[in-house]
Amino acid sequence: MASASDVPGRYDIVLDGHGYVLLDALTPNIPFRTHRAIYTFSPTFLERTNIQGSYGDNQQDFWMTLSQKDWSEGEGQAHFRSSDQDSARKFWASSAIDVASIPGLVYNRVGVTQITPAGVSYAGCGCGAKIGIDTHAYVSLDTATHNLHTVDSTGTDTTVGAHGSGVPNQWGMCNDSVNVYIAGATRITKWTGAAFSSFSATANAGSLAYLNNALYSCDGSTLNTYDGTGTKTTLFTWKDATNTALTALGQAAKLVPFGGKLLIFFPYLYDGPELWVYDGIAPSRLAVLPDSMYGFDCEVVDGIVFMSGTIYGRAASSAEGHIPCIYYYANGNIGELWRDSATTKGFGLNGKGNPTLGNFGGRLLWSVNYAASISSGSGVHNIREYDPGTGAISVVASLTSNPSKTTTTVQRFSVTPSSVIATIDLGSGTGDQLVFYPGSNTATGAFITSSLFDFDSALTKTFRSAKVETLGGSSGFDIYYALNDLTGTYTLLQASATSGTEYTFPTNTQGRSISLKIVLNGTTLQRYYVRSAPALQSFRTREYILDMTGAPEDAPRLLRDGSPDPTLPHDAVANLVASASSATPISITDRLGTFTGIIEPDKSEIYEMHAQREILAKSGSYVAKITVREV
Fold this sequence. Notes:
Elongation Factor Tu (Ef-tu), domain 3, Methylamine Dehydrogenase, Chain H, Jelly Rolls, 3 domains, 8-stranded antiparallel beta sheet, mainly beta
């Protein structure tokens, strides 16, 4: 067997372990004419993904370009597809931006104010409420004194005093536009705006709601109503087949007014999270969510019922395997609005990781607030928004909080006409606060991160430049980029960039796809644009004229080192035919190196020069013209 080391000392060519020499005699009147070998390269070509216009296989004088000018369908899309109208309006992630108010523009939102009331050591928060069109939101705190706090339109916190209900119940706070009612471990307390008084002696009444001139409560087993003196009447009791009252698992059932009816959302009842409705006569079940889900909160926006919780997800450990999600109920149909795409986990029934819901300005708000693992306090902390009009999901604000990793977190949005007060991470430990939105300043660090742009091609590309245009040509934004990955580190391309200026990526910036991150710094985004070129590949092609003449007994063909060729011409031809018929690529070595390729049968010919007429058993002489191509 011949090897690559035999070239050029002994052979001119080694094909599939067999050595050959090139024809020395050049005769112009034969098909191979005046050359012994031709060393060429194939034309550069693209995979046949795009075959129209300048994307043809043999064309290379073009740029791949892509721009995006509409983000109104929201975040959560990993890969951009320009031919898909929905895909062209989505992006990957964001913070403190508004993409839904005017489609085609990305606004920098106002900021949030994170408040830690002086002198208060949080142990948890019951819930929140407001009185009428008052600009004050009321928050009941589970502290040693069980104080009631107000937060006004400037974000100023004021302690009202101890409400007397003891530890507040989950969702145990509401208002009737005149008074605030607080359900707790000892009673239901009424706050008139000036003084506290006992409204009902009912302990642990659970969730409260005001509807149709009456106060309602649900403790997870019974639905109750109260007359003007605070006297309780039980309307319905949930029981099993043995007539034993049921108790909802996890968080308490929540009451939500729904037009003139009352919704009762159970985090887990008979078959999973359940949505019931009370129409003034009797409760009836509307919908059942997946039994792999633990429910948490319920809210109504534009007549659509949204229900949050965590659903079993991707983790190997069941303790950390619940992913935050939101379902909706509309016109008798159930669907999933959102499921967290992060690999971090929620915590099931104990409250952490469960999105708290709110309705502000006809848009659904929810908190994304959970630790990365049970053993870690770090994680994801932000407030997101869903616009029912456009379907856009975006991040209102990122929070700088660090939740306790062991204590149940109880959360609530309290909404006034001009503001939202969110109780976030109110467990033991550091980072407990109220969040007031909107704050007085423009949000800092507002950004939008694009989906991955691969130009609808899996080819490796050389990325040339990026350009960003803003409303009014304003400048001062920052441009970052990342290759092939949305979760890694983004590299700064240009700080304090100028609108409409094309910025060049560093030399040899290559990858299959690219994502842009634009930090707005108060600007309004209109468009971004990326330019790249495919990293085109070419392959070696060769044409060899092989000399297989002579027979060792009478006229042996001499090799390049002067030794006789040990292979009979007929055997050499047989080896060549076998190599050309190989189902797998073969190794090819010539004077310019070794590569893996194939012999192209339709472009190869074998010529029989003459036979050994004297001894017919002996092989004749042959010349072959073969074409090979690297693969």
